[in-house]
Amino acid sequence: MAPDPEDFAGAAAAAGFTELAVQVPAKADAAFARLIGALEQRGVELRLLDGDPSMATPDGLKRAVARISHLRSWKVRHGAPQGLMLELDIEPYGLSGFAADPERGWRGWAVAVQALAAAWGGPVAVDVPWWMQKSPAGAAAVRAASSAIREFVVMAYRTDPHLILDAAEPWFGHGKAVQVAVETGSVAPEVTQTYRRASRGTLRLNDSSVALFPAAQDVEPGEAVYALQAQTITDPARVSFHGVEDRAAEVERQLSPILRGWSNFRGFRLHGWQLKVSG
Prior knowledge:
Blueprint: H1 5-14, E1 19-23, H2 30-41, E2 45-50, H3 58-77, E3 85-88, H4 102-120, E4 124-129, H5 136-144, E5 149-155, H6 161-168, E6 177-183, E7 190-198, E8 200-205, E9 210-218, E10 224-234, H7 245-259, E11 265-271
Parallel strand pairs: 1-2, 2-3, 3-4, 4-5, 5-6, 6-11
Antiparallel strand pairs: 7-10, 8-9, 8-10
C-alpha cells in the first residue's frame, strides 16, 4: 500500500531532507496534489523525475512528450509551484543497440532533452553519468542540448572522496547548476572488460550489430573481431554507501567546503535511499 502523502512528507522532513525528486506518476491525481502540498508545508522542495532509455528513440520520445505536456497542463490547473523543476534521467546506454552505435544513442539523448524541455516550458535538470564527457559523442550531446539544460545531477557513484571529486569537478565548467549524486542503494559488482582488435576473438562488430560469443570466432569480411585482454571487478562498496549511510553523510561534510568553491555547486543528492514511513 502506498504511504499517505502527509505521512510521507512528515517522514521526509523528520529525516532531514530539504528536497526530494518524486517519480512522475502515470497520471497526476488528487493524491499527487496532496503530496505536493504536504511537502511544501513542511519546507521540503519537490522536483519531478522522469526518465527511460526509450526516450532517446523516436517512439519513446513521442510518448514522453505527450506525458510531460499533460503534466504541464495539470500543474497549471492545480496551482503547483511555479518553480517546480522537471528532472530527466534518460540513460540511453541502457538501449540494446547503444554499444554498436553510441553516437546515435547520445544524439537521441540530446534531441529528447530539447523536446521535453520544450514540452515542459523551460530548461530542465538532467541526470548524467560522470563519464559522459569522456565520450566524444556524449560531450557533443551536452553541447547540443545546453540551452535546454538548467542543472546537471552528476551521478558520481563512488565512495572514495577523491574519486567523487574527480567525477564531479569537470561538470562545473559549463556554468550550469550542479548537484553531486552518490549512491546508497544495493548495487551489483561492476565488471569492466578490455578488448583488443585481433584475428580471433569473442567480440564481433559490424556496421549494424555487436555480438559476444562464448568461444573465439575468426574474423570475417566486413567485420571486426576483438579478443578479451583484461577484466576487472569493482567491489560494490566502492560504488555505493549501501549499509553505511552515515559514511555518506561524513563524505558530504568533508567535500562540501571544497565544492563550495564553485559558485554553481548546489549540494549533494542521495540516490537509492529508503525512506521509512510509519503507518
